[in-house]
Amino acid sequence: MVLALVLAGFSARSASASSSADELVRQARAHEAAHEDDVALRRYTDALAEDRTSADAWLGLGALRMKIGEPAEAERVYDTALAQVPALRLALQGRARARWALGRHAEAEDDLDAYASTEGDTGALRELAGWYGEDGRTPAQLATWRRLLAAARDASDATLEREARKMVRALVILVGGSDPAASPVDPSATRRTLARIAARGG
């Protein structure tokens, strides 16, 4: 009986903390919309003081830090969010963008690749392909567009499939001999067939 009362009290406190955190997040968003960023930052921080597992507070705080030009602080927020709530995969995407802004491109690409792979997010894959392009990593860009092509086929997304096929064809030309799928060393009939398929974009 005593244990049941203790558990009920704990559950009530947890629900109250979550409710308070939700209200503070609502206030933070309102202040953010009114361009009162300093107040919004405080409200997000207050929400996390109430509930360290509030996904909305972590993501709102990280995004606001990015918006006001503080990527190092945003990265710290997303790092802490992932430590507190490991299942909060959107924090991985946020951290990727913070790291990219900080010029730590390899770490950013790894984060975004992990996020896209886990969530099956074609928007994140498209962003990743763009990052590889900016870094001059054309073979990695080609591989990512091939993943987008496969995802488009799986989802029966004709628009994305057309775009991905076009990008794959263009990138195959740019990559040339450094693309093992399009320029196989092994002259076997199977490899030649795969090369023709790759050159066509699948």
Quick tags:
202 residues; 2 domains; Serine Threonine Protein Phosphatase 5, Tetratricopeptide repeat; 10 helices; mainly alpha; elongated; 80% helix; disordered N terminus
CATH superfamily of the largest domain: Tetratricopeptide repeat domain
Q: Helical residue percent?
A: over 70%
Label the CATH architecture of the largest domain: Alpha Horseshoe
Strand content: under 5%
- Span of the ends, CA to CA: 66 Å
Count the beta strands: 0
Number of separate helices: 10
Task: Output the structural class.
Answer: mainly alpha
CATH class of the largest domain: Mainly Alpha
Can you write the helix and strand succession as a string? HHHHHHHHHH
